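Much of our argument rests on the idea that a fold can be written as discrete symbols. In the encoding step, the backbone of a single protein was reduced to a row of integers, each denoting a local shape. This step matters because it turns folding into a mapping between discrete strings. For completeness, the protein is quoted in full, as a sequence line and a line of structure tokens:
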Amino acid sequence: MTPFDQNRLHVTRREFFGRTATGIGSAALATLLQRDGFAATPTNTRGGGPPSLPHFAPKAKRVIYLFQNGAPTHVDLFDWKPNLQKLHGTPVPQEYVDGKRFSTMTGKPDGKLLLAPVEPFHQYGESGAWVSDFMPYTGKIADKICFVKSMHTEAVNHAPAISFLLSGGEIPGRPTLGAWMTYGLGRETDNLPGFVVMTSVSKGTTCGQIFYDFYWSSGFLPSRFQGVKFRGSGDPVLYLSNPKGMSRQMRRAWLDDIAQINEMKLKEFGDPEIATRIAQYEMAFKMQASIPELTDLSGESKETLDMYGPGVNEEGTFARNCLLARRLVERGVRCVQLMHAGWDQHRSLTTELYNQCRDTDQPSAALVADLEQRGLLEDTLVIWGGEFGRTPFLQGNLADRPNWGRDHHPYAFTIWMAGGGVKPGVTYGESDDLGINVAKNPVHVHDFQATVLHLLGIDHERFTYKFQGRQYRLSDVHGKVVKDILS
């Protein structure tokens, strides 16, 4: 007797009725709701999980997350504080930092000197949004985006903070946003993965961050929902090309034979990872035809390429990845996660911050404009931001300007969002007069997660997955939807 058969014999009475009654009851309720017109019209759920999703009509069908690894400095880019300019070079007031935990590079912030923004700010558009001269292209689309200036988190170091923002837990092992999305809503295409990840880093940076695989992990969800990472050069996916001497017809025949063997094992053992293997082999075969077309930019107009900036012509750049992100969502990919490293400016505010902004500002703004002109922005949610902010006080010596830096700062930071049901041309929340703590309308990481899921038509409290006896969700046991930013 196999262990699986033995396990089935030991199913308790409580488990049996729990599984069967819930399944029958849920099916009956779904039928009644659909018949009476109360259920939301389901999206295409190819390869998805719960058939009841979305819970209500979604505003967004897909997400492009422009994740800025290393934590952009909010007080130098989007959060204009005249008082910080006025008090430049003076010690940070003790009442602002009492009891606060910072990274070991700062330790106690006592006596640290406040540092004014490196570049001046100006107001843009009808909304009058304050944007630094570091980000002129973002300033030009200020009326299309929503700035959230009251974000706050709990982790003070990069990897735990990124994991917390993307998965709801600081310790790796939970599903990330893209995995939850594809599990819940499925794919809109059979020819590409539902969740794609691309990474980039500015040339010459000394503050790059490691891209850990758990940033796009499926966690305890079936592994077919994990992000598929596209490489920046060569074949976007390893082994995408057939070996010499193998035709596409031969590959198809081999896969059919392998699928038959795997189907036999699936029936014998019931292991969901075998089903994942079958699905991934099929996806790889389809990607051999779809990926070359996706990455061929020869059909893009000169105007479009120019809009994204000079980096678009070079493989592996953030600019090129932004254009590929638009092409991916055009073709039905549910979630595209672009991760650009190099924002960890502990000693490079006056040098490498210029490079980071030059490499990311124009492509980010171009992506929003490009999506809008193609009619895709309305139901595509674009998110720009990092894992936390950076300290309004100086890390380093005030007299040594070339080595100015800022440390990690979880207590207030800024992100922006566009499209997908978010109000354009608004600023939500405020930090205090020095950009240190949230002063108005705080938005915790779990609130952010709840809001993103809401825009996708998902009630974050009802969207769970049982693992090791507990019902898990992206927002853990917290989170409130930020309704004031919804259009």
Remarks:
- Residues 13-45 have pLDDT under 50 and may be disordered.
- Residues 13-36 form the longest helix (24 residues).
- The two ends are 58 Å apart (CA to CA).
- The first strand starts at residue 62 and ends at 68.
